[in-house]
Design brief:
By secondary structure, this protein is an alpha+beta fold. The chain is built from seven helices and eleven strands. The chain starts with a helix and ends in a 7-residue tail after the last helix.
Length: 241
């Protein structure tokens, strides 16, 4: 997610165009919301299948997300009119269109944000900012960050979540996970999902995409930024709850 924040900064400075990015996770990782200070101390020592579970902090808000069986999207753009909520919903349009074409109609949730704030897990409940299926199952949780006129919005799409690990991390498996996709999603299927979502974005926003990799120099900049963020994260106080 350091790449997302780097893209936001570069775009805000006028040195990078708007970007749409998709990525998966090489190993299970818990991402904390930027303002989330209460979380169990044992998360720092978690192991899964012989490997440590990484713990990172997002530049955006919200509650903790367990990554590893999900597909993450990221949008960086600017110049959008409207309130924060209106911009948020506008940036969700391609997700709704794309998943409808994949056979899963989505709509915004309707739970109280007070209940959401009392949970450690982002996927424990679905607020009006989340995208849920027809039976109320939360499929996509997203968050947004603004810096000046530039916007970063990214989110997690739970495709084949680790139910046992969810139980170990959060003490239970929420309905949004236990009723998620009932089988593993193969890499080819993820590629098809990404292709469908990209086509939906082209139509929703009338844009053309140029697909490219980051250069070695850009990666060096990103790694330098991540090292700074790591030092800031390691100095944060942990408050158990």
């Amino acid at each position: 997610m350091g790449v997302d924040e780097w893209l936001l900064d570069r775009h805000r400075q006028g040195s990078h165009p708007p970007a749409l990015r998709f990525y998966t996770w090489s190993r299970p990782t818990i991402s904390l919301g930027y303002h989330q200070r209460r979380y169990p101390a044992f998360w720092h020592e978690l192991q899964w299948q012989g490997q440590p579970v990484s713990l990172v902090r997002r530049p955006t808000g919200g509650r903790a997300v367990l990554h590893g069986g999900d597909l993450t999207y990221s949008i960086v753009t600017s110049g959008m009119s409207g309130t924060r909520s209106q911009v948020y919903r506008k940036l969700c349009e391609f997700l709704i269109l794309g998943w409808r074409r994949l056979g899963i109609p989505l709509h915004f949730g309707d739970r109280d944000r007070g209940e959401y704030a009392r949970r450690h897990s982002c996927f424990a409940t679905a607020t009006g900012a989340d995208l849920v299926t027809s039976d109320g199952t939360k499929l996509i949780g997203s968050a947004q960050l603004r810096r000046g006129k530039a916007v970063l919005q990214h989110g997690s799409m739970q495709l084949s979540p680790h139910r046992e690990l969810f139980d170990r991390v959060f003490g239970s498996v929420p309905d949004s996970i236990s009723h998620s996709w009932q089988r593993g999603v193969e890499p080819a299927e993820i590629d098809a999902i990404v292709a469908t979502l990209m086509q939906a974005a082209r139509e929703c926003y009338n844009v053309k995409f140029v697909v490219r990799s980051l250069s070695e120099r850009e990666w060096q900049e990103i790694y330098s930024k991540i090292e700074v963020l790591k030092s800031q994260f390691s100095s944060l106080e942990i408050r158990n709850s």
